[in-house]
Amino acid sequence: MSRSPQATPPAHVGEVAYLRVAAVNATGAFLDWGQPKELLLPYPEQRFRPEVGKRVLVCIYEDDRGRPVASQRLDKHLQDEARGLAAGDEVTLVIADRTDLGFKVAVNHRFWGLLYQDEVSRPLRRGQRLTGYIKRVREDGRLDLSLLPPGSARLDVVGEQVLAALRQAGGYLMLSDKSDPAEIKARLGISKNAYKQAIGRLYKQRRILIEEGGIRLLPEGDSAER
């Protein structure tokens, strides 16, 4: 079976990918992975029977004959204990499953990690690939993840989120450092502590004015010292 390689962004051996089922027959399922020949997902590597047109999350590997094949049994290919990573490292994430705590995530296509719900500021979907950061390597080698970089770079990212919200709101946000944490989370998708740090940084940069009931965007070149 074959198809145009331009049909979907190409996936490669060694990656976790969310692929469309192109066909199913007695051999297994065949997946569109952006390569000239479709990728076989053999029956023994399936967790459930895929349906044509639906997508499945798989790990792509080489079998004992050197042929690329897919497996839905990701636990066979991804490790719980990470090696060679440290807090602050930038990594590639692929969203796998939602859990009670947040999201189970494939990290660099090699390890499992956990992205806690309070680290998530936007909707995420199964199979989504995005950039993240190692927040913590636990004593057992398991990874806690963040979508924001560490240190001052994190504040810069949050600050840009605040500025974008200010512009969208016409230059004024009725959110102060005394606002309810749930309201800040609902409006901006960030914690109250992150919000307070970000607006303090933006005030020092003379980009906003902090008022009793909220914050106001200052024109470029204006001063917060009024």
Describe the structure.
The chain has helices at 151-168, 181-188, 192-204; strands spanning 16-24, 28-32, 39-42, 55-62, 68-71, 90-98, 102-107, 111-116, 129-137, 143-146, 172-173, 208-210, 215-217. The N and C termini lie far apart (70 Å). It is α+β, with helices and mostly antiparallel strands and 226 residues long. The protein has three helices and 13 strands. The strands form three sheets. A five-stranded antiparallel sheet has the order 3-2-1-4-5, with no helix packed on it. A five-stranded mixed beta barrel has the order 6-7-8-10-9. It has a three-stranded antiparallel sheet with strand order 11-13-12.
Q: Helical percent range?
A: 10-25%
Instruction: Indicate the proportion of strand residues.
Output: 25-35%
The assigned structural class equals alpha+beta
Radius of gyration: 22 Å
Give helix and strand order, one letter per element, not per position: EEEEEEEEEEHEHHEE
- What's the β-strand tally? 13
Query: Could you describe the largest sheet, including whether it forms a barrel?
Result: 5 strands, antiparallel
Total helical elements: 3
User: N-to-C terminal Cα separation, in Å?
Assistant: 70 Å
- Spatial sequence of strands, sheet with the most strands: 3-2-1-4-5
Mean pLDDT: 89
What gross morphology would you assign?
elongated
Low-confidence stretches: 1-6
What would a concise description of this structure say?
With 226 residues, the protein is an alpha+beta fold. It contains three helices and 13 strands. The N terminus is likely disordered.
Feature tags:
226 residues, alpha+beta, 3 helices, 5-stranded mixed barrel, 5-stranded antiparallel sheet
